Amino acid sequence: MVTMDDVAKIAQVSTSTVSHVLNGTRKVSPATARAVEMAVQELGYIPNTLARSLARSTTNTIGVAISALSNQYFSETVHAIETECAKHGIMMLFVDTHDDPEQELRVVKALHHRRVDGILLAPSMGQHPLALDYLQANDIPTVLVDRLVAKGFDQVGVENIKSSQALVAHLIEHGHRRIALIAGRPGFSTTDERIEGYQAALMAAGLPFDPALLVNGESNSEPARVVTRQLLALQSPPTAIMAANNLMTLGAMHALRDANIAVPGQMALVGFDDFDWADFFVPRLTLIAQPVKALGARAVSLLLERIESPERKKQTVRMAPTLRIRNSCGCL
Fold first, then answer.
1. Cut 0.85: pTM above it
2. Which among 109, 144, 143, 152 is positioned nearest to 124, based on CA atoms?
């Protein structure tokens, strides 16, 4: 078996120099680095990555704890994270939290016990953030993704308030005065912020807020379908609906089709979260597109910065989404 000593002999350098080149632990001259790399290639030397990790107290792995299986947005986020990890030569360990606080705590503990260098987490909600307490108590490098809830962590997500306000304002510009919001699960920061943006748009236009038009779709399609039917049954139903995520947009669309209500002719429909087939719906859906690739990449870079510099100041990064106007709102 080829050893580091063999590489050193071919490259005519010391074994420690070979180690520095392979591990990046000390700068060497470009000529020396090339000599070592050529020797590695010539001999077919395979570094012992486990031994290197143990020596440096790192494993070159990060944990990702996100409820991704039921939501395409989070699935795409995980894919973006994995792509960015590959660029840095990092292995990603993914576990689905199912948005269950107890499962989330088990997941975080399991990743910690597997000695990941850090964790990316989209926190579930609950009265007692057990996973967040565990992460802080064990001083684990962590970045919160999408749901920004704790000042004691690095965080990255989209700007929800102004973008939701702009989406509702767009409906108001089309003459709508009774606009409903199908909001997500209570307790999520994304839910609260999108409600805030909705109410801000009404206030800016001088429109009253009607509590009957703010309903809870539980961030899923079937509950959204149910509450859309409730909106349609109101004595004074809405003329436009905003759904606060992609699954609830689909649920609302199903309910409108069940009721034979034409979109946008009889009801305008817009939503948060763009998805691949939104442009192929009839009508084509007007949606807020989140910068998933950029968000995933920024989450990984924030975590690597935290791992490298544990004492640096915590950062909260807000990324701007894009309003993609199609024709479910009455445009085009």
1. no
2. 144
